[in-house]
Amino acid sequence: MSSQPRLAIIGFGAFGQLIARHLRDHLPICVCDPVTRANDLPQVGLAEAARCQIIVLAVPLSRLEVVLRTIAPHLLPGALVVDVASVKIRPAELMQQILPDHVQIVASHPLFGPESTRDGLAGHRIAWCPLRGEGHRRAGALLRRLGLRVLCTTPDQHDREMAVVQGLTHLIARGLGEMGPLPDRLTTASFRRLAEAAAMVQADSPELLQAILTGNPHAGPVRRRFLAAAAGIADGEAA
């Protein structure tokens, strides 16, 4: 067995592939996904993935509970389980409730994606919520060596901030998208930046949008305040 801890990526969608691309030169990696093949990386089932020393859960929030219950009986003492969901309160609750006491847990949210990391990871941020054990220190040190800014927080504080940061970004981006093609000739610098920001999230999956808008308990109140403020501004202009 390699002296390095083996890392399993459960879920090999766009973000699982991003993880593999940046970590494969640092750790032995295997992949578990019933649909997407891992190319040259070893493809394993859930039970074998769960017996790795580090398990990264890159599955939709709607599938997280099922995956946790499936891997729980196979997890090794001292293993580190990390999720990468865009919301943190619910995943943190599920992992602490379902996973055995002998495993370590981190709830994380990489604040970037395939589009924003085309030129590399350096300078990008990851929200880091250690929940159980000390394994988060070694994992966090590796992420820092890759150039990431590891920002420690709590699941609740994360979701409060992401209700604004992601919730409103996706709301505005999807709203602009529903309006049809945007002007691209007579544009201002500020509009071009807005259009670029909207384009960065247009390709996000429906599962991700659902998690951001409905899986975050703080998103609804923030969204209602924003829409009320926008309506108020529009009413004031009309008057």
TrEMBL record:
Keywords assigned: Oxidoreductase
Which PROSITE patterns does this UniProt record tie to the protein? PDH_ADH
Q: Which Pfam families match?
A: PDH_C (PF20463), PDH_N (PF02153)
Question: Any coiled-coil ranges, and where?
Answer: none
Q: Does the keyword Oxidoreductase apply?
A: yes
Source domain of life: Bacteria
What InterPro entries does the annotation carry?
A: PDH_C (IPR046825), PDH_N (IPR046826), Preph/Arog_dehydrog (IPR050812), Prephen_DH (IPR003099)
Which intervals hold domain Prephenate/arogenate dehydrogenase? Answer: 5-239
Oxidoreductase among keywords? yes
Protein name as annotated: Prephenate dehydrogenase
